[in-house]
Amino acid sequence: MRLSTFGACNRSHSTPIIIDAAQPRHWAKMISRIIKGTYCYDEATRRLFGAIVTGGQLNDQRRALIDLTIRRLKGSGMWDKLALLYVPAAKDSFSARINWKNPGTTTLTATGSPGFTGLT
Questions:
Q1: What's this model's pTM, rounded to 2 decimal places?
Q2: Alpha carbon distance 60, 99 (integer Å)
Q3: Would you tell me which of 5, 39, 65, 88 could form a disulfide with 96, CB atoms 3.0–4.6 Å apart?
Q4: Rounded to whole angstroms, how far apart are CA atoms 70 and 59?
């Protein structure tokens, strides 16, 4: 795991890119920058990554999808209207219980013995 990949952004070394999810070449560019460590994640995305890495799993493609989701929510104005956001489509149960809007607060707690099948 490369913490520099989602640490504080150095804007002088990272140029913003616009991602169109329908364009495979945009995904390739985004993933390439993530792998090189030159992609600058949104601040809310970096906070979420910090919560996930304490007990969850992230790969480069998952990081890209998470960042794109948060950026689109912000771009549409929905992010500011949300108090809580849980995304149960996750690789592991820990990541599925995290509040994306404010990681570290109101994390869901499993009761009983729920089953969980993570996404691959």
A1: 0.69
A2: 20
A3: 88
A4: 17
